[in-house]
Amino acid sequence: MTTTPSARAVSQYATTTGNLSARIALHAYGTNPQDWFSWLGARLPLAGDVLEVGAGTGELWRRVDRPASGLRLTLTDFSPAMCVRLREVPGARVQRCDAGRLPYADAVFDAVIANHMLYHLDDPDAALREFARVLRPGGRLAVALNGRDHLAELDTLGPAVGRTDVAAGFHQDGTTAEEAPARIAAHLGDVTVERYPDELAVPAVEPVLAYLASMVGPLTAAQESAVRDQVRARIEAEGAFRVRKHTVLISATRGPR
Boundaries of each Methyltransferase type domain copy (predicted)? Predict the structure, then answer.
């Protein structure tokens, strides 16, 4: 079993976009009428030269209204499969690269976005140094991360599929919402934190099964039956399978140099 954040990311994302797509799909059951991408987009600096690092499938740019002019977008990811999808984003320049070694000159971007990607890195400080380096003075960094209790109810299903490491291996690993502000403040100033208010209310078992399969691979009949029993019991008792979310947007600014 892989043990480092980067090794897990390679096993999950290097050759497929399906795992990430399955996880995004589960969040369609959020109870906040403003979905995550709309909420995030309303808070991003969307003008000038904008870089998203670890852009995944580019879903943000399919959900957020981009200005008709004044935005020059660059998208990066380590995964060849993700970069194929990113090239479908109209008008974007796409580069496959390592977040800790960005192939750009100093002070060339007005904004850098890192949406749910820092926890996939073995050395997040190397990436933060790079983010600060490529930002222009006054440029903004936007980092989205999860807290340690994010999706806690899904974690409880791990033993049902024989994987007690589900939480530790995916959304509680590496950099978290609790410790990231201090880490970011070591590289940039004016650090602020805003929490996205939401929880999931999943009305059926299938989306939960798809989520778990994206994490651990195809489930056996016995594993699927165990998950169905647990999730159905919660739906019958509460009207939905409710899952807490803990997601924050951390913003920071590069000062003059």
Answer: 51-142
Q: What is the C-alpha to C-alpha distance for residues 255 and 139, in angstroms, rounded to an integer? A: 8
The angle at the Cα of 35, spanning 15 to 151, to the nearest 5 degrees, equals 65
Q: For 34-71, how does the pLDDT look when each residue is reduced to its tens digit (9 = 90+)?
A: 999 999 999 999 999 999 999 999 999 999 988 777 89
Residues listed for the chain:
257
Query: 45 phi and psi, to 5 degrees?
Result: -80, 105
In a domain, 207, yes or no: no
pLDDT tens for 179-208 read 999 999 999 999 999 999 999 999 999 999
pTM: predicted TM-score of the whole model, two decimal places: 0.92
Residue 87 lies in a domain: yes
Single-letter residue type at 113: I
Cα(159)–Cα(96) distance, rounded to whole angstroms?
36
Give the CATH number of the domain where residue 190 resides: 3.40.50.150
